[in-house]
Every structure is written in C-alpha cells, then in structure tokens.
Design a protein that fits this description.
- It is a single chain.
- By secondary structure, the chain is α+β, with helices and mostly antiparallel strands.
- It has a domain at 19-82 and 89-99: RRM (RNA recognition motif) domain (Alpha-Beta Plaits).
- Helix content is 23%, strand content 32%.
- It has helices spanning 19-22, 30-38, 52-63, and strands at 23-26, 41-46, 67-75, 79-82, 85-88, 92-99.
- It has a four-stranded antiparallel β-sheet.
- The longest helix has 12 residues, at 52-63.
Amino acid sequence: MKNTKSNKKTSHRKLQLEPHQVILRPLVTEKGVYKSETANHYTFEVNPLATKTEIKSAVELLFNVTVEKVATQNRKGKPRRFKMRMGQTGGMKRAIVRLKGDDKIAFV
C-alpha cells in the first residue's frame, strides 16, 4: 500500500479568530520604538492560536497599512517565587510586523 499523506502542513483548527481577537496589544518598549522609527518594524502581543497569515490580515485591516513580513516568537514564562512556592509567569506569543514603504502606525 502506498502512503497517501502529503508533506503539506494542514490546519485542523476550525476556530476562526476575528482581527480584534488576533492582536491583543502593541508592545511599546525602548527597543520596539527604536525599530519602528528606523526599520519600520512594529511589535504586538498576539493570540497564541493565531497564524502569520491571520496576523498579517488583522494588522492590515485594523491599522489600514500594508504588511511586508511577519515574524513570530513564542516566549516562555519566567520562573518566579511566591512565598515558599515556585511558580511561573505566563508565556506569550509575540509578532514583529514589517510594513511596506511609508506606512506608519501611531499608537498615541
């Protein structure tokens, strides 16, 4: 018998996220502000279930800009101590979005 499975990644998720559910909040840090001014990169905290294509379409729809590239990072939580117990802060998914040309996003 031949194996009929293909090597393509398929999404088995039936849940469709709305744009306001994909982008949780912008991450405004010193490094993020510097990257937005010099390289036109903007950083957002996104839903852990969101894909790069969903992030791209959500940013384009919410901010009326054209997205050139999306890079994502899954950040682990840091270990923290609470009284006599060890715990861990929650992790997050971060998206770094590069915009085309003269497109800008004003967070203020």
